[in-house]
């Protein structure tokens, strides 16, 4: 405490004014601060308590969500070749099936090696990928998959950049780079599983596509023009393939001979299988193809149109990354070409040109075993495979001259000195050197379908992931089987009971927390932190009431939690009568989904359903299809939107309902069920939502705390003002008292002087 020096010196009133002022200020300040601090503490406790409620609801929601799909169905399997998992809990029922796998589905895999590094240049150009199946050297395009073209730009043509370009094209092919050694890197291309997903990869020249008219959705059709179809261009189509891609679908049109004119090109395109899938119509322009889109498409990207090579190599390594016209298993690698030199230059009509192909010594010939020799004369190509070592060069020549396609070559082949001699016709004049080399086998894994039997019935599938053999179950084929493997699905009451116990424990935890926080107290106990709070009381009331409501859409009658032996004790907690649970579950195992799993179920095998969203009313509904119009209705008064074999509701009490029908479907009962756990999740989600009641409550309490803190600041400021007033008042008093004392002294002295004068 400050020293009152005026009082100590007996100046002024002599009172300890500092103590007096402190006492007066404290008498006003402390009660006000105590009230505000009490209110602030109460708000802070409420904030903490609602934070606990929020965390409890978050845990509650997570537990309810984790229970989704736990129906009591248990899968068992013997062996590891086939793995079974539940995909759709609403469709799984008891089953037991025997499986034998003779072939797993494989993806077509091509490995192109011989590149020195990831930064090795591959060359620019266009790679075209088609997906389908190879058979005896012929390729059949799969019209259900798209494929597409990948443009490799000059300057962006390293092995790594080619890999990235293929992956970015999203054409159903995955590219990767495999380092086989420090100086040998391979490009690995892999398609999807299945025999119909084999790859045919070709290179060719791209046609220029330009936009003639920009599309405006709903009013103007976009028109694109494909240049490069003059008479000479059309004649060059002989033996080539025209490839068109609209961004989604692709079309390959092969020309065995030269079309007579552009109209014949258009006719060949429009009559090719798959043309109807293209997003444009093709007509003839002026030395160009005209592509016309539907006006509803709006402004679309430019199409891709290419003329594909028929197997002739060029000077670019990009050609190596093809398997066109090579039975899908081989490709010509320019790096493995043989040396070809000109022995005699051709002069038109006089001298035949002769070329020599070196590299056929005895040791070279012995290495031909298992290899394929490749010839290209600039127009035609020839592949000659050697399954064993030829006896000598004459045997090599004999194999070449007897191979299919030899008669199409522009030269004849004979034996030279450790070399092959290629002799052209004198009328050919001076011709370019032939390309001669070895075809590299690039296929690592051939495309194949999965072959298996279920209960003795043979089936094939394009993928190792199978979803259509057992309702609601996904089968994954891992390997072939050496003996039959049994997979079973059975209702397991112990699993269901465990899930129910988790449900009850979580409910009890949440209810107990809210009861403790909202307890009003008694003579022997203090009230809870949220006693009397309307929001906390509402949360408790809603949580307990939801557990007693009817659950609709799982059976003809309503289902209640009590059916499964869940009882409410006197203290409000839940317990389980296990005997009652097991009895009810054994009689109605599919009903357990009412607690854990929302679903849409039909009582007709020709109708299946699903629900998108949560804005619907659960229950049993009658679905019918009008046999004359094909219109679908629910309960006779809810009209469904029809799209092919699909019926759906865009609004009303069944908003988001989708029904899929099969041939012969006419009517069905549709059970639309929302599980109790989802109902509770929705409640928790609503309470926890940004801007929801709990967040609003906490924000309001935070604002109260800020206001209380400001009130404390204001009280402190106010008290300083009061203190200053008291100080001024007491100072004035002391000054007045000091003046009076001075007057007293003066008068006293005068009186003393007067008394003294009287005595004298």
Query: How do the strands of the widest beta sheet line up side by side?
Result: 34-41-36-37-38-39-40-35
Shape: elongated
Q: Which structural category fits the helices and strands?
A: alpha+beta
Count of individual helical segments: 13
**Integer count of domains:** 6
- Unreliable residue runs: none
Largest sheet: 8 strands, antiparallel
Backbone CA Rg: 45 Å
Describe the structure.
With 760 residues, the protein is α+β, with helices and mostly antiparallel strands. It folds into six domains: 5-55 and 699-759; 62-66 and 494-688, no CATH class; 76-104 and 449-491, no CATH class; 107-202; 207-308, Immunoglobulin-like; 338-443, Sandwich (Immunoglobulin-like). It is built from 13 helices and 41 strands. The strands form nine sheets. An eight-stranded antiparallel sheet has the order 34-41-36-37-38-39-40-35, with no helix packed on it. The mean pLDDT is 90.
Quick summary of this structure?
The protein has 760 residues and is an alpha+beta fold. The chain folds into 6 domains: 5-55 and 699-759; 62-66 and 494-688, no CATH class; 76-104 and 449-491, no CATH class; 107-202; 207-308, Sandwich (Immunoglobulin-like); 338-443, Immunoglobulin-like, CATH 2.60.40.
């Amino acid at each position: 405490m400050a020293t009152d020096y005026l009082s100590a010196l007996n100046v002024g009133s002599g009172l300890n004014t500092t103590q007096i002022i402190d006492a007066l200020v404290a008498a006003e300040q402390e009660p006000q601060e105590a009230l505000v601090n009490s209110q602030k503490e109460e708000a802070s406790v409420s904030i903490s308590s609602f934070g606990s409620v929020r965390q409890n609801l978050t845990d509650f929601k997570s537990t309810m969500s984790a229970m989704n799909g736990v129906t009591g169905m248990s899968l068992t399997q013997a062996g590891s070749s086939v793995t079974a998992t539940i995909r759709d809990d609403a469709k799984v029922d008891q089953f037991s099936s025997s499986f034998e796998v003779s072939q797993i589905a494989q993806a077509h895999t091509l490995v192109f090696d011989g590149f020195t590094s990831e930064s090795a240049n591959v060359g620019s150009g266009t790679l075209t990928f088609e997906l389908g199946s190879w058979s005896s050297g012929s390729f059949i395009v799969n019209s259900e998959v798209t494929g597409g073209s990948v443009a490799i730009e000059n300057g962006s043509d390293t092995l790594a950049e080619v890999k990235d370009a293929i992956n970015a094209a999203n054409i159903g092919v995955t590219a990767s780079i495999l380092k086989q050694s420090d100086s040998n890197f391979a490009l690995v291309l892999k398609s999807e599983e299945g025999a119909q997903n084999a790859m045919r990869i070709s290179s060719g020249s791209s046609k220029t596509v330009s936009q003639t008219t920009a599309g405006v959705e709903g009013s103007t059709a976009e028109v694109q023009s494909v240049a490069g179809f003059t008479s000479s261009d059309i004649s060059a189509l002989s033996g080539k393939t025209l490839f068109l891609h609209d961004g989604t679908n692709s079309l390959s049109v092969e020309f065995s001979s030269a079309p007579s004119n552009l109209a014949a090109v258009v006719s060949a395109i429009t009559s090719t299988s798959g043309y109807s899938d293209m997003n444009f119509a093709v007509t003839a322009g002026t030395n160009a193809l005209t592509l016309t889109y539907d006006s509803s498409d709006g402004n679309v990207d430019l199409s891709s149109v290419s003329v594909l090579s028929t197997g002739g190599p060029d000077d670019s390594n990009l050609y190596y990354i093809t398997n066109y016209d090579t039975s899908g298993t081989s490709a010509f690698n320019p790096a493995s070409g043989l040396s070809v030199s000109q022995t005699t230059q051709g002069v038109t009509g006089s001298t035949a040109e002769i070329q020599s192909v070196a590299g056929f010594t005895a040791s070279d010939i012995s290495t031909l075993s298992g290899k394929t020799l490749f010839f290209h004369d600039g127009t035609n190509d020839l592949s000659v495979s050697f399954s064993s070592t030829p006896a000598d060069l004459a045997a090599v020549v004999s194999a070449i001259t007897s191979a299919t396609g030899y008669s199409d070559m522009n030269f004849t082949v004979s034996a030279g000195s450790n070399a092959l001699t290629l002799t052209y016709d004198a009328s050919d004049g001076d011709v370019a050197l032939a390309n001669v080399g070895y075809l590299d086998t690039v296929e690592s894994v051939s495309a194949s379908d999965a072959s298996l039997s279920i209960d003795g019935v043979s089936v094939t599938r394009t993928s190792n992931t199978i979803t259509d053999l057992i309702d609601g179950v996904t089968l994954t084929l891992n390997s072939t089987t050496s003996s039959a493997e049994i997979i079973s699905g059975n209702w397991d009451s112990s699993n269901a009971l465990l899930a129910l116990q988790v449900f009850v424990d979580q409910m009890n935890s949440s209810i107990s927390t809210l009861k403790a926080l909202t307890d009003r107290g008694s003579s022997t106990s203090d009230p809870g932190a949220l006693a009397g709070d309307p929001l906390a009381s509402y949360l408790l009331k809603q949580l307990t009431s939801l557990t007693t409501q009817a659950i609709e859409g799982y059976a003809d009658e309503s289902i209640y939690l009590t059916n499964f032996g869940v009882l409410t004790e006197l203290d409000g907690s839940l317990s389980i009568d296990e005997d009652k649970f097991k009895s009810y579950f054994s009689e109605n195992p599919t009903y357990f989904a009412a607690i854990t799993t929302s679903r849409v179920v039909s009582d007709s095998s020709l109708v299946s359903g699903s629900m998108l969203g949560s804005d619907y009313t659960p229950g049993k509904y009658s679905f019918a299809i009008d046999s004359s119009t094909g219109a679908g209705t629910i309960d006779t008064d809810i009209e469904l939107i029809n799209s092919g074999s699909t019926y759906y509701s865009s609004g009303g009490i069944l908003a988001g309902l989708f029904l899929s029908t099969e041939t012969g479907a006419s009517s069905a009962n549709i059970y639309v069920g929302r599980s109790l756990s989802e109902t509770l999740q929705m409640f928790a989600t609503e309470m926890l939502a940004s801007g929801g009641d709990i967040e609003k409550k906490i924000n309001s309490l935070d604002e109260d705390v800020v206001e209380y803190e400001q009130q404390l600041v204001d009280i402190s400021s106010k008290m300083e003002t009061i203190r200053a007033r008291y100080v001024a008042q007491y100072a004035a008093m002391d000054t007045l008292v000091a003046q009076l004392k001075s007057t007293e002294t003066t008068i006293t002295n005068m009186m003393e002087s007067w008394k003294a004068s009287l005595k004298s």
